């Protein structure tokens, strides 16, 4: 359900961006292209449609955002938290000094470089 709401929010955002870009701040916008008086959908109706669609998409975005916050999945956080907690508990302390061998190898077991030929 959360994924569906997220996709609907994304679609509403894209449509809202497109509607706002079509509008002109001085009242022209898409309506300025329809100068003929014989148009079925005149200048005034185009402005009304763009304004109403802006308000509808803004309200839909608000409602979908509130609904999306109600459907946030909480079960997966506990799984991720326990995996991270396990890694932290099993981590090696970086401040610990490693134990290097302190005894020198015997001369009898060491091979000289010349005898390798």
From TrEMBL:
Query: Compositionally biased, Low complexity: which spans?
Result: 101-117
Q: Name one Pfam family in it.
A: SecG
- Disordered: region residues: 95-117
Query: Would you say which domain of life the source belongs to?
Result: Bacteria
| GO terms of molecular function | protein-transporting ATPase activity
Q: Could you list this entry's UniProt keywords, alphabetically sorted.
A: Cell membrane, Membrane, Protein transport, Translocation, Transmembrane, Transmembrane helix, Transport
Please indicate if the UniProt record lists Cell membrane as a keyword: yes
* Subcellular location field: Cell membrane
Function, as annotated? Involved in protein export. Participates in an early event of protein translocation.
Tell me which family the UniProt entry assigns to this protein.
Belongs to the SecG family.
Write the protein's name. Protein-export membrane protein SecG
Annotated source species: Mangrovibacterium diazotrophicum
């Amino acid at each position: 359900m959360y994924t569906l709401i997220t996709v609907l929010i994304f679609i509403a955002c894209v449509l809202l961006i497109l509607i706002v870009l079509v509008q002109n701040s001085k009242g022209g916008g898409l309506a300025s292209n329809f100068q003929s008086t014989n148009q079925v959908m005149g200048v005034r109706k185009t402005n009304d449609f763009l304004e109403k669609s802006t308000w509808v998409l803004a309200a839909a975005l608000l409602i979908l955002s509130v609904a999306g916050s109600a459907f946030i999945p909480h079960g997966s956080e506990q799984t991720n938290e326990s995996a991270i907690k396990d890694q932290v508990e099993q981590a090696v302390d970086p401040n610990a000094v490693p134990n290097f061998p302190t005894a020198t190898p015997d001369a009898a077991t060491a091979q000289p470089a010349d005898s390798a030929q």
